[in-house]
Amino acid sequence: MSQYNALEIVGQNKARQKRLRVLAEIGCILLFIIFMLPFFIVLLNSMRSNAEIINSAVGLPTSLSTFGENVTSVWNNPTFNFLPAFKDSVIITALSLAVISICSAMTAWVLVRNKTWWSTALFLMFVAAMVIPFQVVMFPLITWFRDLGNFLHIPLLRTHGGLVFAYLGFGESMTIFIFHGFVKNIPLEIEEAADIDGCSRAGTFFRIVLPLLQPVFVTVLVLNGLWIWNDYLLPLLLLGANGNVRTIPLAVQGFIGSFVKQWNLIMVSTLLAMLPIIVLYIFAQKYIVQGMVEGAVK
Fold first, then answer.
1. Distance linking the first and last C-alpha atoms of the chain
2. 261: helix, coil or strand?
3. Range 149-156, long-range pairs (CB < 8 A, 24+ positions)
4. Residue 256: what are its φ and ψ, rounded to 5°?
5. d(CA 168, CA 243)
6. HSE of 115 in the Cβ direction (CA atoms, 13 Å)?
7. Using an 8 Å Cβ cutoff, are 160 and 228 in contact?
8. CA separation for the pair 78, 191 (Å, rounded)
9. Fewest beta carbons within 10 Å, which of 19, 126, 232, 271?
10. Cα–chain-centroid distance for residue 4?
11. Where do runs of H (alpha helix) occur along the chain?
12. Closest to 267 in 3D by CA, of 39, 40, 74, 42
């Protein structure tokens, strides 16, 4: 093969790679537009009046002052009760994340370090629980919580604690599965050195193991936080639509009536519900990417 033919083949390969790169970039831009389109629709409609949204579901706002009026209407609306709903959502999400993350990390650590038949069986049970649909246990769940609360003399329905307990049960399986893969890659020699220095088992976990799980810990917090903050069905079942404890998704339902729907207030309340999760993701993005990359490499 002559030098001219070799250069021609190299040039054709580079041109082909360039075309593929351009197609990939176009595909990424299209996917970005598709995924971000609902968010932009919510943002634009939060700046419009209810009549404008009814006349045209997608359109540009005529006045930016409408956004301030909508925010004021949502903030002062007695049906929505934004501040109490926001407080309840923060309490439920924070407590659920703390309980799920700490308990799952400890459970995964114990299952990895105890190489026995029962640890393997328990891990397989947790993995199998991941494939059980929520709809299967949805209706018996209320009866179970009512009977368990009566037996323990602890109210589990329409309370923060009952919902946190439910999230612990439904979130443990996936979180343990994620932590289990990372704990296996922590050298056992580090823990043995801590034991030799006189560190207790609890101290070994909280001082040695838990700091090493920081990247995946933040990833788990964000994944479960998105689920718990935006969840609607489980709070509806355990808290009720008109209970004293209400999360933001339940409060948004107050703007949806049988005959009238206040679309402008629905859009604004939805936007306000998005903001804490968006801020959390922005600040935790570094750790999320780091945890995913480490998980892929390991």
1. 43
2. strand
3. 156/238
4. -110, 105
5. 21
6. 2
7. no
8. 55
9. 19
10. 57
11. 3-45, 50-55, 65-75, 82-113, 117-129, 134-152, 160-183, 188-196, 201-204, 210-212, 214-230, 233-239, 248-252, 263-297
12. 42
Q: What is the DSSP letter of 255?
A: G
On whether the CB atoms of residues 162 and 149 are closer than 8 A, the answer is yes
The three-state secondary structure class of 60 is coil
**Site of tokens 């998005």:** 274
In the block, residue with structure tokens 């993005």: 285
Cα angle 60-62-64, degrees, rounded to a multiple of 5 = 100
